[in-house]
Amino acid sequence: xxxxxxxxxxxxxxxxxxxxxxxxxxxxxxxxxxxxxxxxxxxxxxxxxxxxxxxxxxxxxxxxxxxxxxxxxxxxxxxxxxxxxxxxxxxxxxxxxxxxxxxxxxxxxxxxxxxxxxxxxxxxxxxxxxxxxxxxxxxxxxxxxxxxxxxxxxxxxxxxxxxxxxxxxxxxxxxxxxxxxxxxxxxxxxx
Length: 191
Hints:
The protein is mostly helical and about 190 residues long.
């Protein structure tokens, strides 16, 4: 494991754990994580994943602001469910993004796994956007994406990163449970 990978793994675990707890410090911790993994993915020629880290910077800043000021009266944002129409649109966007990026990487680069890399990249962007909106369904998508990531990283011999994504799966399950509790508390009638 390279020193970059070790640092990225550490910050990644902390960032996702903070997200499960709805702690706003998940966003700056995530910024460190994506900066480090930009280098790691460049080194192993996973260019879509590398580019994803760069795009994450913008999404992380957006999420940080949204969690602090996206709620009623520009207050903190609460967990909610995604509208059905938004989920359908996001599924189409994710699929189209995966196909277009996959074809581009396949034709124009020496990418190791262009279509798998592109699919996880595209749907990770969708999941990250959903997370910034605090839609509970983000955790289900993260679980699916992270399962695929584990396989990719094992194939590329990024063993520590594969373990990291296995931990992300466990944390996503925790996040799903915690956010469901938060949603249930918000829906319960106050006495």
